[in-house]
Amino acid sequence: MESWIIRTKDLKKYYQLGDHTVKALDGMDFLVREREFVAVIGTSGSGKSTLLHMVGGLDVPTGGEVYVDGRNLNEMNKEQLAVFRRRKVGFVFQNYNLVPDLNVFENVVLPVELDGRHVDRKFAEEILEILKLEGKQEVLPGVLSGGQQQRVAIARALVSKPAILLADEPTGNLDTAASHDVIGLLRLAAKQFQQTVVLITHDSDIAQTADRIVRIEDGRIVKRSGSGKKKDRWADEENPEEKGGACHVEE
Fold it and tell me: pLDDT value at position 224?
């Protein structure tokens, strides 16, 4: 029996622009297994970032349901969602969003301190070592390269020991070499700490590093496949919903 950590049911997000209704998400069924690394790809405006915001509790849907780690986000109030985001989800965005006056270590542990919890210094140092940032703890972000700054952002997302890591175009500001370095380390860290990763990207090469690839267009899942490294066991099923609840597919 599959263990789903993320599941959306008939998820919708509509925006009204004058007389026109924009359907950012239009009845999406999206599922992710525990400890899975899933890449979500699609053109600009396809709905992939909106999906991530819904799963991360950053926005509320127009319709449908979002379940994360067994909880229905629709049933949470603002305060409960804030706690959920701080403790269950780590976010990595295209912009690093580091505090320039804080050094690397201070930036990494900031979310834990803001949550009023004890900082596990040994764990934070372990993350920095895995992400090849040892020796950079006292350095300010401004003297780091773009790839190093993004690794600091990843460390910050990991330090709260979240069950899920949501990454929205984390390599968008990086060159090719730095992009592959960052994604490789992200995957290594997620495996080390047994976390689930949903990666939003427009880069098909980056997507190929994932366990599974989901393509979104016009607010719907239009295709899913295994990566080049791992064949998707659902790929040839005519009705995957009956065999574990896989994502809706339209070819």
Answer: 66
